Amino acid sequence: MEALHRDARRLVPRSLSRLLGEREVQVLEEARRFPPELSQAVAADLAFGQLRPETLAALDAEAGRAGELLREQRVTEGLVRLGGLMRIPADLADPVLSAGPEGYPAGVVREYYAFVAASLDKIPVVLDDPPALQLTRKDLPAYWQGLVDRSRLESSVIGTELFTNGRVVDHRRIDYRSPVFGVASLSYSRAATAIAATWLAVWREARGDLTRTPSPVPVHPSDAPPIPGAGRAPQTATREQQ
Length: 242
Fold this sequence. Notes:
Elements: H1 2-9, H2 14-22, H3 24-32, H4 36-46, H5 53-71, H6 75-84, H7 87-92, H8 108-119, E1 126-127, H9 140-162, E2 163-164, E3 167-168, H10 179-205, E4 217-218, E5 226-227, E6 231-232, E7 238-239
Antiparallel strand pairs: 1-7, 2-3, 4-7, 5-6
Helix pairs in contact: 1-10, 3-6, 5-6, 5-10, 8-10, 9-10
């Protein structure tokens, strides 16, 4: 979550990035304190791949409360609440949480997250969906459901690759050539982009400063930065640069 917070901030206006960065500890604590009843509703819906209307309404209300605080000039409280909204897209973009009611064999989730943690320095963060950064708050419920749809498509890869011949695969035995790396890379960038998109939609409605927004720079296979220990990174998406 710390890495996602910092990478998502690279996609928003510099003023907002600075304000959230100054409150990083409080923001991450706010994300951890996300209302348990809402977390449970999201978890139950993710198991079946569809966010219920009442769950989407509750998530939207949570975003609305952050905007209200900002409009009331309760700046610090509003920014912390805004930052804590990262929990919503982070969960929805996580393919493990969208695995379905059957889940994974014991040990698979542990090895997947261990692999992601060990691979963060090798994952190229790309702008997953440029139009998402222009969304308004009323667009967020449909966008959030779209995150679930995409995450669910990748969930099976984790179970297939990390459980073979009846045994859990140690994460240290896989590398950037594995489909697991592809899933981890795509889902991480999807989460970072979705967090920024969620923040921006609420910030925009609250009439926050939108100047000095970083511009994504296209990266092609021939000029993509190399992945440490992996030669050239075969990326064709865009990498956001400060």
